[in-house]
Amino acid sequence: MGNVCWDFPLLGTGNESGNNIAAITMFKGTGIMDGLAREVCQNSLDAKNKDLIDAPVKVKFEMINIPKGEYEMFSEYEKYVDQSIEYWNKSPLKTSDITDFLNNVKQALNRDEIPVLVMSDYNTEGLNGVNARDDEQSFWKLLVDTEGISIKQDKNSAGSFGIGKNAPFAYSALNLVLYNTLAKDGGRAFEGVTRLVTTQKEYNGKLRKTQPIGKYLYLEDEYTGRPILPGDMCKIANIDIFKRNEVGTDVAVVGFKQDDYLDWERNIAIATIKNFILAIMDGKLDIVVKSPKIEYYINKSNIEQLLYQDFANIEDLRYTKQIFETITKGEKNNFKIAETDDLTIFVKENEGYRASVSRFRSTGMLINTTSEGLPRFAVVVIVNDVGEMELSQTLRKAEPPQHTEWKAKNITDNRDLHNKAAKYIRNINKKVKECLEKFENSDIRDRMDAGIGNFLPDTSEKENINEGNDGLKTDIKIREIVSYDGRVFYDSRYDTAETSDGQHTPKTGIKAGKKKHKKREDKKIQVVKPEGSTEKGIAPGRSNVRIITPKITEHRTFYVNENKYRLYINSPEAYDRVFVQYYAGRDDEKQEALVVRNIKSDNFEMHPMNQEKIGPISLKEGSNILDVEFENSEIMAVIPVFTMEVLYEK
Predict the structure, then answer these.
(1) What is the C-alpha R_g of the chain?
(2) What is the DSSP string of 450-461?
(3) What distances in angstroms separate CA 143 from CA 13, 226, 487, 518, 616, one per listed residue?
(4) Quick one: which of 79, 509, 537, 638 has the most CB atoms within 10 Å?
(5) What is the 3-state composition of the chain as percent helix, strand, coil, each rounded to the nearest 5?
(6) 3-class SS string, 132-189
(7) Kind and range of the H or E run holding 611
(8) CB 288: neighbour CB atoms within 10 A?
């Protein structure tokens, strides 16, 4: 006859395990409570009971204290911890990390009461398949009894790796989690899982090594176990918080790290608001945070009050407020990426905003917010589940296990899917750019990064994929401008002080001409032959003018929108007759001089140029601002080169 107990399967010829479990470690240090809040609420949204169309999923975070001495589960667990300490003290593989880990677990057990954070959901389907046969699909087994497998109950689900279920272990000082469910199919079950280290147990009169994962279950024989069912004699499974009358699932972090999360209630509330603001606003998710000292209720009806009163001064919610205002008051745009209306973009302009692009899955979970220094603009990108959900399902595959970005590089085993994701991400970025171009007349004077980082490719990624790089960034390959000794080379050609026909100009200055620059033109520019000489090269001629480089101590060029850029110049002194020429990288590793259509300075109004060299202009000492409009409207990495005319005596 079987019994309820801990079981650690024998290791046999398997590998020994320490405490560095990658699937748990990835959720440590990801934010105060973000890792836990994201995984728990996401899993609950994925399990929504579709029969309850208008009802929100409800998630409750509740802290309880369990008297250790009243439950055999803790005393049995402590025996395995002691045996693990004994084993590793004798092992030549012992490390200080393993010793510290086991000592911390032992210390967490030396308490009269064990803190337990119970996370419960309602209006979900629970975990169906508690009593499933071996040839039937069981969502209970997928959560409790598998590794690296994810089969969601609905194709709209956001999860895809089967790794997120490890997040609760990162918050347990005992590395111990309890699972409890009342499923839609009528099944009830309870089970405990620990991810310890290699330990040992007696088998046939001899101590033998065991696997690191142990389970508190009903052991039918030495090879067969099952979840604890209502008829089994298990005291801890029958405490009040696990006696469910409503369908749903409980996940309990046993030995919650209270010393590490002293203000956990407030932090959980902030984390859920930040990561699920869209789901809350849409009425898809309600949250309760409860402890003996405080309670928080978060839902559609009070989210505005929480943002602007209760949590008004929380820096972590700065972008969340921008998201709220952008969705409620901003301009809405619907687009087709793969299917009609599968993308929605909201844009709002506000003097106090810090530029942000926030990306959401249709479930209402935030993927990420990228931010640059440009004020005024907030963008919210929402991928919708429509039709065959071609876009949303492709982007799901382009997410890492933490679901914090969309990048095609995350798809490593399917080239076609990688390329499709890269194309979709690039097209999403184009739609964002289209929305921002509506605000092209905005006069941005702040000396801060104008947001180009949101749109340029990540040059640290060296991928050789046909569709190019991604990450909601334009697929433009940028090459570094080559310079030596202060001179900038453009296709092996130099600036000169003469016109292209080698004749002196009647006025001091450089005349670039009116001919538009042709992109990628390989024809050589005619080399100057100074008058009175057969040698090629540069000569001062008769104009008593020479070209020097002004001592510009600081300059930065920022993208504004469309084909417009802004140049900030910090000049150590006042200069007259300064010329500026811009160069951009090309994907053939050459540099290209850019044609300037218009310029505007602090010192003069907008002037049409239609040439490569800007000037002459004057610079005042200190800060100078120059607005530049180029002929082409690509987003580019551009570098200005400064020259200046000065008179000299022969």
Answers:
(1) 32
(2) -SGGGTS--TT-
(3) 26, 14, 62, 61, 70
(4) 638
(5) 25, 30, 45
(6) CCCCCCCHHHHHHCCCCCCCCCCCCCCCCCCCHHHHHHHHEEEEEEEEEEECCCCCEE
(7) strand 604-611
(8) 17
Contacts of 107 (CB under 8 A, 6+ apart): 173
For 640, residues 6+ apart whose C-beta sits below 8 A from its C-beta are 555, 557, 567, 580, 581, 582
Q: Residue 127 class from Cβ within 10 Å (0-12 exposed, 13-18 middle, 19+ buried)?
A: buried
Indicate the pTM of the whole model. 0.69
| CA gap 311, 624 in Å, rounded | 40
Dist CA 504 CA 540 (whole Å) = 9
> 219 burial class (0-12, 13-18, 19+ CB within 10 angstroms)?
middle
How many CA atoms within 13 Å lie on the side-chain side of 384? 16
- What backbone torsions phi and psi does residue 490 show, to the nearest 5 degrees? -125, 100
139 vs 230, 460, 645, CA distance in Å? 19, 40, 76
Q: Residue 582's closest CA among 523, 505, 512?
A: 512
| Helices 415-437 and 390-397, packing angle to 10 deg | 110
Instruction: Average the pLDDT over 224-240 and give the result.
Output: 93
Give the pLDDT score at 296. Answer: 96
Percent of the chain residues topping a pLDDT of 90 = 43
> How far, in Å, CA of 350 to CA of 378, rounded?
8
479: its two tokens: 């090459």
Q: Which residue has the tokens 């001899």?
A: 206
Q: What is the pLDDT of residue 564?
A: 83
Q: With residue 428 as reference, give the H or E element that holds it.
A: helix 415-437
Give 550-556 contacts, CB < 8 A, sequence gap 24+. 550/575, 550/578, 550/619, 550/642, 550/643, 550/644, 552/642, 555/640, 555/642, 556/447
Q: What is the pLDDT of residue 471?
A: 34
* Number of other CB atoms surrounding residue 346 within 10 Å: 21
List all residues 6 or more positions away from 605 whose beta carbon is below 8 Å from its beta carbon.
Answer: none
User: Please, what is the average pLDDT of the chain?
Assistant: 79
Note whether 183 and 143 are within 8 A (CB).
no
Q: What's the one-letter identity of residue 488?
A: V
Six-digit token string for 326: 């952008």
Enter the tokens of residue 356.
């942000």
Token pair recorded at residue 346: 């909201």
pLDDT at 153: 54
pLDDT at 485: 38
Tell me if 454 sits within 8 A of 405, measured CB to CB.
Answer: no
Phi, psi at 567, each rounded to 5°: -105, 120
Give yes or no for a cis peptide into 616 (omega within 30° of 0): yes
Question: Which amino acid would we find at residue 384?
Answer: N
For 312, residues 6+ apart whose C-beta sits below 8 A from its C-beta are none
Residue 2 has pLDDT above 90, yes or no: no
Residue 462, token pair as written in the block: 């060296």
The C-alpha atoms of residue 78 and residue 179 are separated, in whole angstroms, by 20
Residue range 166-197, pLDDT digits in tens: 889 989 999 999 999 999 999 999 999 999 88
Beta strands in 309-434 (DSSP E): 331-335, 343-360, 366-383
Q: How many CB atoms within 10 Å of residue 512?
A: 20
**Strand 285-290 with 57-67, pairing:** parallel
Q: Give the SS3 label for residue 566.
A: strand
